[in-house]
Amino acid sequence: MLQSVLQHLEKLVSFDTRNPPRDIGTDGIFDYLRAQLPDFRIEVTDHGAGAVSFFAVRGQPKRVFNVHLDTVPSSPAWSASPHVLRIEGDRAIGLGACDIKGAAAALVAAAQVTQVTQGDAAFLFTTDEEANDARCIAAFLARDHGFGEAIIAEPTRCEAVLAHRGISAVRMAFKGQAGHASAENALSLSALHNAMRWGTTALDFVQDQHHLRFGGLTGLRFNIGRVEGGIKANMIAPSAEVRFGFRPLPSQDMDQLHATFRGFANAEALAEYEETFRGPSLPSGDVARAEERRLAARDLADELGLPIGNAVDFWTEASLFSAAGLTAFVYGPGDIAQAHTADEWVSLEQLQRYAESVARILQ
């Protein structure tokens, strides 16, 4: 099957689906997929702003495979065109080859080799994962889809991943009082000073969470990604903005963490606290419900004969399916270490193994 997978991957990589800018319409890559799946019932839906879903069904499947087709932007560090697939040794190199068009190519190849009478299948291809803007998944889950199981493709080295962290992004705005920096009360009036005090407290708190454990994951992941504010060195900063994100364990309460981080700020100096994106952990729910869903996902992976891997730190849209009540896990070819890199690649062995396992599942 490998040759067929590579032929499809070559075509999928050639389509520019970078996100941003997510300049993606309902033709192009979707016309290609439609032509490769002639025995499927197909729905292509434009959700706006370049978010397009392609839902293909054959027979009466009980589970859905999900793959995102959007990629991160390419960087100047690429050694050749990112949209031309290259085979070098045991690697397939191209933008999205690892994350995660390789899985999409393998799904198409697997569908083509399985007999119609034995190959019940449902594929949901989407284009909004890389921008944390899950319009496609949200619309699918809001419909009467009828599925109880979901397998979400991300680079997991062909292992079924049952758990990963949640994710939240936040914008905080601090206010101050403009004035001359020589003033005695400049330390307390500066919006930037208050933002920096908040950051120090938050970092100390995160360090104290290092002892926490869940399914092989440890501690709380946290990052202050951007700090802006002030005018010049001899002026008290009248405003400042902080952008930060955190990735909790499945056992940590997202809302409680928000209350904690917000509470670290001087209430008089805090102008705004806005969560700009939230993705639940996998599995989702309280501790008891999360464990119940993890065991159900493990049983499904065992039933399908898939090896089970460790929990991972990166976030996936599998958590959205889990939060909606589906039994969900992450399973795909490639290694996350190659995702989002220049000269991104996926091993040929992983592509072949994934395609063969999907064909076996479809049959």
Structure description:
The protein has helices spanning 2-14, 29-36, 97-113, 135-142, 186-189, 191-208, 254-263, 287-303, 318-323, 348-362, and strands at 41-46, 52-58, 63-68, 86-88, 91-93, 121-126, 149-152, 167-175, 213-214, 217-218, 221-229, 239-247, 270-279, 327-330, 345-347. It is an alpha+beta fold. It folds into two domains: 2-164 and 282-362, Zn peptidases (Aminopeptidase); 167-279, Alpha-Beta Plaits. The strands form four sheets. It has a six-stranded mixed sheet with strand order 1-2-6-3-7-14. The radius of gyration is 23 Å and the shape is globular. The model has no long low-confidence stretch (mean pLDDT 96). Its EC number is 3.5.1.-.
Distance between the termini: 15 Å
How much helix, percentage-wise, in residues? Answer: 25-40%
**How big a fraction of the residues is strand?**
15-25%
What's the number of domains?
2
* Average pLDDT taken over every residue: 96
Key features of this structure:
32% helix, Aminopeptidase, alpha+beta, 363 residues, 2 domains, six-stranded mixed sheet, four-stranded antiparallel sheet
Describe this structure in a few short sentences.
The chain is an alpha+beta fold and 363 residues long. It has 2 domains: 244 residues, 3-Layer(aba) Sandwich (Aminopeptidase), CATH 3.40.630; 113 residues, Alpha-Beta Plaits (2-Layer Sandwich), CATH 3.30.70.360. Keywords: Amino-acid biosynthesis, Arginine biosynthesis, Cobalt, Hydrolase, Metal-binding.
